[in-house]
Predict the structure.
Amino acid sequence: MSTAGDNASRAAKSDIVLNVTDLRIVLDPSGIDIDDDVSFAIHEGEVLGLVGESASGKTTAATSLLAYQRRGAKVSEGRIEIAGTDVLAAQGSSLRRIRGGLISYVPQDASAALNPALRIGSFSGGNQQKLVLAREIDSDPRVLLIGQPTRGVDIGAIEFIHRQLVALRDAGKALLLVSVELEEILGLADRVLVMSAGEIVGEIASADATEKKVGLMMAGVKGEGHA
């Protein structure tokens, strides 16, 4: 099993699965607009970490890739391609294919993604998260978006979830991992994007990343290439 650092150079040579270009998102007045032409790509067999403080815009950016509105969010400009398919232009059967096969989403609140008939209260937070992850993996997506994968779960569940994510990466999937947990991001991601106030303020390879560097970016100190 390769580590994030060992995997980065190999992933960079593989095909791009998810390509986001000049993305702009408008939210309702209570949200964070993304208005800085956000652009990034994820390759086959790569984990891209998206990190930022609360209300930095990271979750809005991630969920917008599913081509649905969140809290009044609306993509006003830009292009999102998944395996060559334009997400924003997709309608009808094409959009169902994107949601049903090309891309899957594990939200930060697992209970919200489970069928109420499962009697959510009888499952621990860790088991809820494992159930949702297993369901989304079973759909065999090209891209998997994961929001706060281990928030509020026990150590055993954390280890299980991390192993599953690494296995998906090693199987050639493209993963976008959204989290505020720097240790988790640095341990799993091949590259890290940092968002602050609705814009990407830095990108750093996991091999060069430290909690101090990423923390400064999260505070709004722009990294190289984003000054």
